[in-house]
Each structure stands twice: as structure tokens, then as C-alpha cells.
Amino acid sequence: MSRTLTQWLAHLERLHPVAIDLGLERIRTVAERLGLLSAPIARQVVTVAGTNGKGSTVAMVEAVAQAHGLSTASYTSPHLLRYNERLHLDGEEVSDDALIDAFERIEAVRADTGLTYFEMGTLAALVIIRDRAPDIAILEVGLGGQLDATNIIDADVGIVTSVALDHADFLGTDIEKIGTEKAGILRAGRPAILGSRRMVASVAAHAASLPVSRCLTLGQDFDWHRDDNGCWQWQRPDETAASALSPLPDPGLPLDNAASALTALEALGLSLDASRLAQAFSGMCLAGRMQRIGRYCLDVAHNPHAATYVADQLMLRPVTRRVALLGMLGDKDAEGVVEALWPVVDDWLAVTLSGARARGGETLAELIRARGGQVIAVAESPTAGIDWLEQHSQHDDVLVCGSFFTVAEALARLERGEGTA
Q1: What is the Cα–Cα distance from 206 to 220, expressed in whole angstroms?
Q2: CATH classification at residue 359
């Protein structure tokens, strides 16, 4: 009897003794058996690495490509509510049946090769993409870069969005070494897009050592500017006044990443049209990234770099009182996140996350109190935190952040309603 998708995902969790085991030997062995490395999976491939901003960059590359009439496939992680969110085909979530079929094909050839949950999911996505053969496939690196499962595929253009300290248990705390690891997605003779004004030196050094065909850096080779009407203009590489595009609508996502997405697509040879770009950027909404549901703003920011961006955006939206519902994993820099959010948060509600890596809500509350913050409640889960706010804080603006797990559970609760004001 065929497994359901839920049963397959449970099976995937039991295939390898550890959840994260960086390295390409296992996945490359199975990929070769599947024929994934013998021919391109798509006409062109974009791979996106970085500490923050990967998801929004993927979403904007995808939207712009579709607006220009290209077929697309995008693979991201993790998901918030449904595993199917990880793979989009022409903007639509992949079906259960397609995933099940791909898992069955992988299982038939992997033999005794133990694959992690992420490796199995990546192979399934690549099988489906290869069968679909889209014009462009956009792959988001899961962790790091050089040793990430997605890196078995050679990218036609590589984007590194940012480099900051995160996942120290796996990547260490040497920022230059982390940069080299993330730059491992870049390929010789192909363009590299560096999407940060403060990119660590090791990334550009790695690109220069290949060498890539062009290394384009935000703030040096391309940029963006905001006008007084809430629009923005992309300053493309080698731009002249005659080639400048019209101002574009704000996508509600980081414009560093928007400019990087456009630069990558142009490096692939796509002729960008202003009207199609306006279509792509109008009304964009990415789940869990400054996502608004009534008075709630949900963002998966889980490190100081990402939390600083959230705070900067919230400063543009002053409110009478804002409460932060914060839930974080134990291996994340909670002190740094609280410090970054401090200017835009009046009161705090600390919640406990489940799982082995979880940080208790009371532990988080003690950290906030030590900083001098007002903790109005401690809840046993993000769901319980939303319930408390609906009963006791019905008129305050609420920021929900600190982890994908925090946002996922809160989002599920808010989508159910259950008396939400």
C-alpha cells in the first residue's frame, strides 16, 4: 500500500540518525542513480545562499521571471504550514501525488544510503523539477552553501544575500569561514551576485579565486534608490540614463534582495521590461516575512541581523503600543534579537517552543526582564500566546517573531480564527 505524504514525511525523519549532517557524498550517490547529474534540471538555474533574505530573493526572482513569460520552479525551506510550500511550479504548490511519486522513485534506488530529511526532500524537488524542465529553477540553500544538498546542482548564477552569525553549531563563529562556505555555491565562468553592502571579504575572495565571469556587488556594481512617492528605482550594472527603468512599486520585501534578483536575471540574459516588473512587484506577499493579518505582523526573524530589518520597517509604522510575542530556539542569539527589537517594542510576551532545541518561555522572559523589559505574560506555546493576547490585549499592535516555529504555529492559529478580534 502506498504511503500518504504525511506517512512519507514521518518515514523521512527516521532514515538518518541526525537531522543535519552536512556533506554531499550521500546525496550525490543517490542523485547519480536518479540521473540528476547527467543533464540540466532546467534551462537555467539560480542558487541563493545567505544568512538572511534567501526566501524573499527566491520569491522575487520567481515573480519577475513569471511576469516575463518564463516557466519556473522554486525550492525553499523550511515550510510554515504545509510541506508542499517548499516546491512551487509556476507559482503553485506541488501536489501530494507528485511528492509521493518522487519519494517512491528515490526509495527504489537509494539502497542502504541513509539520507537526511532535507536530503530526501531536496532530491524529490530536483526529480520533479527535472521532469518539468522549466525555463528557470531557483534553489534556496538550506544551511551554509558548499556542503548543502542543493549544491550538487551547478548554478548558472549564484546569489549570496548576506553573511552573519547563525547556526553556529554547524557553521562555527568565524565569519570569514562562514562566508567561504556560503560562497561555495558559486561556479567558475558564471556570474556571482553579492547582495550585501557589508559582505565579508571571504565571499568576494572566493569568487575571485574561481574566477566567475562577473562578480557584481550591491553598492558598487548595482544599487537601488527610493523616491518620494514610495517607489524605487533599480540602478543596474553599466547603467546609462537611456537604459534606466521607470520607478517600480515597493514589493514590501527588502530592496537589497529585489535589486539582487533583477541583477541576477539580467546576468542570465533576460531583457527586463518595466511594465512586467511593475506587475511582478505589485501586491507581493511572502508568508512569514512582514506578513500582516489584522493587527498582527508575523516575521520569521531569528537572529539580530534579521531583527534589525524588522525593527527598521516597524519604525515606519508608528503605533500607540506594540507587543512582541517572542519565541526562540535555545541555540539562537536571543539577547541580540531583543536588543534589535527594543526600540519598537513596548511590552513582551514570551512563549515556549516545543522540541529538543527549544528555549523555555520563562527563560526568555528572564532575559528580557534583565534588559529592563516589561513581560506582560509567559505562555506555554505560540498558540497559547495568541489566545492570551485575544483575551487581554485586544487593541495593541502585535509583532510575532523569533523562529519559523513561532510564526508557523501563530499563523495556523490566526488562520483558524477562533474569535480573533
Answers
A1: 18
A2: 3.90.190.20
Amino acid at 366: E
- The count of domains in the chain is 2
pLDDT in tens, 184-226: 999 999 999 999 999 999 999 999 999 989 999 999 999 999 8
Residue 164 domain flag: yes
How far is Cα 174 from Cα 157, in angstroms, rounded to an integer? 26
User: What's the full length of the chain, in residues?
Assistant: 421
pLDDT at 242 over 80: no
Partners of 377 in the β-ladder? 349
Contacts of 123 (CB under 8 A, 6+ apart): 27, 30, 31, 34, 36, 102, 106, 115, 149
Domain boundary among 281, 301, 335: 281
418: left (phi over 0), alpha (psi -120 to 50) or beta: left
Q: Does 122 have pLDDT greater than 60?
A: yes
Residue 89's nearest CA partner among 135, 54, 53 is: 135
Residues 6+ apart with CB under 8 A from 401: 298, 299, 300, 301, 302, 307, 310, 324, 325, 326, 337, 341, 407
Judge whether 75 and 87 are in contact, CB under 8 Å: yes
Q: What is the β-pairing status of strands 296-298 and 291-293?
A: antiparallel
**pTM (predicted TM-score):** 0.92
Mean pLDDT across 10-35: 85
What the block records as the C-alpha cell of 184 is 561555495
